[in-house]
Design goal:
321 residues; alpha/beta; binds threonylcarbamoyladenylate; binds magnesium ion
Length: 321
């Protein structure tokens, strides 16, 4: 077991008590911060929706700390599940599996399936262990807003949540990849921190593609990650935008125009670094009162698929036409 300092020890004990008594705890994972409740307690889970202002059609991921806990949540005896869990857990892959009747319908938004993952952050694992129950947890932001990658983002977004475990900046900074299995292979429901190619080394991709924005994964709603400052992808920005009042999110070289604020996804065009920086940079622009932020697109291979997915969603509301 990881050694924690005295403060962390006390906070973990308190956090686990809050979970067991039906309360909410914000906690770090390697992807983004989550807002957790006891997955077996529908009243506690309802508090999550309330705190986030999240429509109840959006299903929550259930977080576990031991591989065997998967089979408390599903009866599926698919050897591909064991293979994927063995390779990717703890880590940022969410497996959508048929749910057991004991999983509350509120957790899964009435779907017959449940999304399950084992996070890799030591504080997350320890919180799940000490709570003694799987934790239902969405990202700890208000509905439709940018996901939090630091404890301070959570405190700002959800000031009513009184227990926020601080585990430092999230190392991936982008949410888990969500997949389901059919007879032919896996179906990508949400691109994320594990790439399609990494999964394909174990299980083939099914020819059946998930319907974009379909109910199969509400996280694929076209506009889902809305920063307060309008965001445009370079190339889509209005021609009359004044760079001296705008921010620029660069991938590689800085822009030629005199932007007021320039931040980098990655100076070296490293997709891993860009994923880790993405939400953090968007959060950092927000208090600056910029007229808009213009972002470089990134090549859509590997992790770039998930990054562009989030950038397009963040830009959606402000797209012209
Ligand atoms: O990295 C992550 O996945 C973070 C951390 C906290 O674990 N969690 C996260 O949760 O991003 P959330 O609620 O913001 O996104 C969960 C995604 C949603 O797009 C949801 O639609 C999908 O997972 N999902 C969950 N259960 C599902 C199910 N049964 N069927 C299809 N999609 C599901
Ligand atoms: Mg989310």
């Amino acid at each position: 077991m990881a050694g924690f300092d005295g403060t962390t020890e006390r906070e973990l004990t308190r956090a686990a008590e809050i979970i067991r008594s039906g309360g909410l705890v914000a906690f770090p994972t390697e992807t983004v911060y989550g807002l957790a409740a006891d997955a077996g307690n529908p009243l506690a889970v309802a508090r999550i929706f309330e705190a986030k202002g999240r429509p109840s059609f959006d299903p929550l991921i259930v977080h576990i700390a031991r591989h065997e806990q998967l089979f408390d949540l599903t009866d599926a005896a698919d050897e591909r599940l064991a293979l994927l869990a063995e390779r990717f857990w703890p880590g940022p892959l969410t497996l959508v599996v048929p749910k057991r009747p004991t999983v509350p319908n509120l957790v899964t938004a009435d779907l017959p399936t449940v999304g399950v993952r084992m996070p890799a952050h030591p504080l997350a694992l320890e919180l799940i262990r000490r709570s003694g129950v799987p934790l239902a947890a969405p990202s700890a932001n208000r509905f439709g807003r940018v996901s939090p990658t630091r404890a301070e983002h959570v405190r700002r977004e959800l000031p009513a949540v009184d227990c926020v475990l601080d585990g430092g900046p999230a190392s991936f900074g982008i949410e888990s990849t969500v997949i389901a299995l059919d007879d032919d292979g896996f179906v990508l429901l949400r691109p994320g921190a594990v790439t399609r190619e990494e999964i394909e080394r174990l299980v083939p991709a099914s020819p059946r593609a998930a319907a974009p924005g379909g109910a199969a994964s509400p996280g694929l709603l076209a506009s889902h990650y809305s920063p307060a400052t309008p965001l445009f992808l370079a190339g889509d920005a209005p021609a009359d935008l004044d760079p001296r009042r705008c921010g620029y999110l660069a991938f590689g070289d800085p822009p030629d125009a005199p932007y007021l604020e320039v931040a980098f996804l990655s100076r070296t065009r490293d997709p891993r670094e860009a994923a880790a920086n993405l939400f953090d940079r968007l959060h950092a622009f927000e208090p600056l009162g910029l007229a808009a932020v213009v972002a470089d697109p990134v090549p859509e291979t590997g992790l770039g698929v998930a990054i562009m997915d989030r950038l397009r969603k963040a830009a959606h509301r402000h797209r012209r036409a």
